[in-house]
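Posting for a labmate who doesn't have an account.
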Amino acid sequence: MTAGSAATEREDLARALTEAAVLRGHFVLRSGAVSDYYIDKYRLTTKPALLARLTAALVPLLPEDAQRIAGPALGAVPLATALSLASGLPALFVRVDSPKDHGTGKVIEGLLDAGDRVVIVEDIVTSGGASAAAVAALRAAGAEVIGVVAVVDREQGGPQALAAIDVPFRALFTRTELGLGG
């Protein structure tokens, strides 16, 4: 793929993402912030063709030494699964809101050995709170969290919050690149 065709594919993917998932109105985000737009992650991950395109674009953002992909439940589970299939790396699912209250009671589902190098995949990062909670849970289980990759960075403090806990961050798109307001 040439640089020009890669740029065109990126622009087409940004347009497809925006058309499929950006809603306008008055929204309160997970972080508590209020916004005039909302990116509906389920509209990103429940459309097979769009999910496949996003996954293909995320694979190059994965650190080369990653051994596992973790997705915070529930929103990032489809992304983690798709990225696992595309990359061949095993997936983990992290319950960041509350641990399972039945069965095994696990916070982390999937096989994780102490010292495993894990990259977290996120749909939308705002303040970085869910990502930081997933980092804490994975570190408590002995994982080495080597990065967070996201579909969209809302540019509202997420990268800075992750940097403060020594976790590199990469996003496929920023809100600015998608032409979205605050």
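Reply:
Got it, the structure tokens are right above this. The domain at 51-174 is CATH 3.40.50.2020 (Rossmann fold).
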